[in-house]
Write a structure and sequence with these properties.
Elements (H helix, E strand, L loop, with lengths): L1 E3 L2 E6 L3 E6 L2 E6 L14 H5 L2 E3 L2 E3 L26 E4 L7 E4 L4 E2 L3 H6 L3 H9 L1 E3 L4 H4 L34 E3 L8 E3 L1
Parallel strand pairs: 5-7
Antiparallel strand pairs: 1-2, 3-4, 6-12, 7-8, 9-12, 10-11
Length: 187
């Protein structure tokens, strides 16, 4: 992904070449694929048939130095047209979802909270997460589980001394439950 120079928390995503956009001369975008991020993959045969997976669960936030946004917006300048894909949940249920190319699936944090049993709701409202500095850089070498909802535990994350410069005072510690933020899964 490529950040807009005057607004670094805004990312340009997509596939193909973009010229003269928001201060960026030429950028070559590659649509993310679960094959670049998951430990296991949909077979080549199934990919040819149009199968894919959710890419990864994430929040639209740098999670270092900048306050997470209260709102996420997608602005489609050129929305691709083409064959639909079949997104496998790959969670053991056999569930699948027919999606257009470039789909982002949003989920409701409120619904997820509402279906928790009372003891987990209590835990969630009292819990906070301390993010690694430059957490998306830190986790880049690691691989995701087939659902895209969690990371595999293989010790592949970057050592902190290999991260871009950081200060402890800029590391984000955020509540698990926030009434204004709702994470989503990106395909």
């Amino acid at each position: 992904m490529t950040a807009i120079p005057r607004q670094p928390q805004v990312q340009v995503i997509g596939h193909g070449e973009v010229q003269d956009h928001e201060g960026l001369a030429i950028i070559k975008l590659q649509h993310p694929s679960h094959k670049t991020f998951h430990k296991t993959h949909v077979s080549d045969e199934d990919e040819i048939k149009g199968y894919t997976r959710f890419y990864r669960w994430h929040q639209d936030a740098a999670l270092y130095d900048l306050t997470p946004p209260k709102v996420t917006a997608l602005y489609g300048i050129d929305v691709p047209q083409g064959p639909r894909q079949i997104c496998r949940y790959d969670d053991g249920t056999g569930d699948e979802l027919s999606v257009p190319l470039g789909t982002t699936a949003f989920v409701s944090g409120k619904t997820m909270f509402d279906i928790l049993p009372p003891e987990l709701k209590s835990l969630a409202v009292r819990s906070k997460v301390k993010y690694a500095p430059h957490c998306f850089v830190w986790m880049a070498p690691a691989r995701a589980h087939s659902t895209g909802l969690r990371m595999e535990t293989e010790g592949l994350e970057l050592p902190r001394d290999e991260l871009p410069p950081w200060e402890e005072s800029n590391v984000q510690i955020l509540p698990v439950v926030s009434e204004l933020r709702s994470p989503f899964i990106g395909v």
